[in-house]
Amino acid sequence: MKRQFTAWSIGLLLTIFLAGCGAGGSSGGGGGDDGGGNNSATLVSIALTPGDSSIAIGTTQQFTATGTYSDSTPKDLTASVAWVSSDPSVATISDSAGSKGLATAGTPGSTTITATLGSISGNTTLTVTAPPQSSLILPETGQTTSYGANDDGLLRKGVPWPSPRFTVGTDAEADCVTDNLTGLMWAKSPDSTKRTWAAALTYANDSNLCVHDDWRLPNRNELRSLVNYGESNSATWLGGEGFSNVQADQYWSSTTYAPYSAWAWTIDMGDGSVGAPPKNGPHYVWSVR
Would you say residue 284 has pLDDT above 70? Predict the structure, then answer.
């Protein structure tokens, strides 16, 4: 006698088979995903490194968030946590993908950097400091007589002038004078022809003195460095320092007057005054390198 298998009996056999193979297959995952890719351990704490760090204005600091789980397993959570700075004016911290945890210093002070995932947070202190002051590089003006309380003649602030201030070249460099304060080399005897600004640039660039061919027209600051504000006439003073043919008149600088580009800055080697005449006017030229 043949046994007939009904749909009911086939279904019963299939149920018994599946129960034997997969019994209890989902029973240990009650903890759920805790953000660390771990379905059984839970996040216990978050530590930030570096701890209590200090950076200067304009610099950055990358922070790392490390999570510790209930099974003592550590995990890098830098890209998973939410980053916050308690004082963004002191330092901001990126919470954007690709740069999470990157702090950028703003102003001097302290801020608390916090990283949060779910209900767990970690924090550290970031201190921003002003950059160290660089050494004073501005020279003295030359004024030595005081005309009022705490004026330039009394305080004489700035880098002291070397002695001697200028050195006249010898042999092949006899037509040049080196300023020992700035390191610039000047034509010993500046040209006595007045030229327009464009012609002055060309003349200076084409100069070939003291076996050097890198001459140019000085910028405004370089030209003004020759003025001695302790003297009523810098041209006369420079004549006693090794130069010759220096005129108590305006000399072109290579610096254009920003408010009106048809003008350029000049320095008067007599009284040290600064001017900005039209570029098409005639003034003296003094080459430098």
Answer: yes
